[in-house]
Amino acid sequence: MRKIVAFSIFCASLIGGLSLTTHQIAEAAGTEKFLEDSGATGQISVMSYNIKGLPWPIAAGRSAALGKIGERLAKLRAMGTAPTIVVLQEGFIDAAAAIKHQGGYKYAAAGPAAAYKSKVSFPSPSKRFTEASSPLKGETEGKYANSGLRIFSDFPIVKVEQLAFPEYACAGYDCLANKGVLLAWIKVPSYSQPVAIIDTHLNSRRASGVSDVRADAAWTMQAKTVMQFIHAKIPSSSAVIFTGDFNVGDVPSRINVIRDQGGFLPGGREALHLAVATERMRDGRQLNDARSIIKRGKDWQWFRSGETTNLRLIEVSVPFGAEPDGTSLSDHLGYIASYRLE
Predict the structure, then answer these.
(1) Distance, CA of 290 to CA of 24 (rounded, Å)
(2) What CATH number is attached to the domain comprising 150?
(3) Which residue from 28, 38, 110, 236 has the fewest beta carbons nearer than 10 Å?
(4) Tell me, what's the pLDDT at 58?
């Protein structure tokens, strides 16, 4: 019974989300103006979206909402504006996997399953952190849910790598999901080297149900694990797009990870900040949605060119923003960053 209650609280905590204030990280995004497009031979577009794919009865109506997400992607495809790559977080349930077929995507990759065991032992937690683990907060109950990470693609996924965060590198109800990193190498036509697409979902803060200090400590361990993973798996010569729900918010210690030593993706730039700063929104009416995403400080998309493949940001759109009645299909907004490959 205790395990069932812990899992229920975990799912409910995901629904609640965080209430965050404004923060701007202009130096992380970069403020340079776009150069004129030249020599381009291809494009890719990457949508990042935390879809709140939680099971009933913890979150009522989520299968229906996810079905609508799939239907909208199908409509975008019919109009020729569907993202070539879809990157999801909180895709826990079967309806999330079904978005691949609804949206017309040929290839898919999923992050760590609930039973997947991490082989990572870095960074080690402090003795104080370990001894404070709480069974009532779900920290000692094992993994009840998969990572929720999913990638769908029009182009072939030629290699998949995944990483679950160490079992001790989590705090509160977040520990009940096997959070980690999903890396898909995608072969874009006409390019010799595949593009690395990375998805992650880091520890929440208030929604975790534990103290901010403990949640921040777990988040920092996860962030260090992510950076170590990127350093080990992705050569500097590769073009890479790294997106997900980073749960940064307006927390100074978390913001500093982005500012210091190149952040999550050394040498990279953040697409949404850059698009807003340089007026590269596809639809000006979506600007408020884009600013809302930035203000919340959770959903980021970093990109970096490779030695033989240059990624140039063209524009950002928000096809899964606020509806006319003020509602949305998730507690996050889903946006697409479009790139020209040169």
Answers:
(1) 13
(2) 3.60.10.10
(3) 38
(4) 65
| Cβ 28 vs Cβ 304: under 8 Å | no
Q: Tokens 């082989």 — which residue?
A: 119
Report the b/e string of 18-36 with b at 16+ CB within 10 A. Answer: bebeebebeebbeeeeeee
Query: Per-residue confidence at 42, pLDDT binned at 50, 70, 90?
Result: confident
Count of structural domains within the chain? 1
Check pLDDT > 70 for residue 298.
Answer: yes
State the Cα torsion 151-154-155-156 to the nearest 10°: 60
Per DSSP, the residues of 230-288 read HHHHS-TTS-EEEEEE---TT-HHHHHHHHGGGTTSTT-EEHHHHHHHTT-BS-GGGHH
Tell me what the mean pLDDT of segment 146-157 comes to.
98
- CA–CA gap between residue 315 and residue 187 (Å, rounded): 22
Closest among 5, 13, 68 to 215, alpha carbons compared: 13
The domain in which residue 22 lies consists of 2-341
For the chain, give the number of residues.
342
Contact yes or no for 74/222 (Cβ under 8 A): no
- pLDDT bracket for residue 27 (50, 70, 90): very low
